[in-house]
């Protein structure tokens, strides 16, 4: 594996670990605090979170195109392959956010 692929995998692993820790913390809070108190904490944190607009193909395409024009064509192809497609239009939109995070690593690695 290349250094960039290793870094992308490490970042993905860290995101999964963070999500698992968050899930464990939520479960512990639910188990050891009053239900009303827990629900209030959850609703407060949900109110603070800003709704992210759903990413679209039009949001992802220019990012990958810029990377490709900047000499990262092979890394962009590898990224598409990682998400199971040969072209961007075949990628599941649910993967756009993770794909952009991986693309950011490519862009910062230059």
Described by the principal axes of the CA atoms, the overall outline is elongated
Number of helices: 4
Strand content: under 5%
Order of helices and strands: HHHH
**Uncertain regions: pLDDT < 50 for 5+ in a row?**
none
- Give the oligomer, counting copies of the same chain as homo and different chains as hetero: single chain
Mean pLDDT: 83
Gyration radius (Cα, Å) is 18 Å
- Cα end-to-end separation: 17 Å
Summarize the structure.
With 110 residues, the chain is an all-alpha fold.
Record keyword descriptors for this entry.
single chain, 110 residues, mainly alpha, 2 domains, 4 helices
Structure overview:
The protein has 2 domains: 51 residues; 59 residues, no CATH class. The protein is elongated. It is mainly α and 110 residues long. Helix content is 75%, strand content 0%.
List the helices and strands and how they pair.
Layout: H1 3-32, H2 35-48, H3 57-82, H4 96-108
Helix pairs in contact: 1-4, 3-4
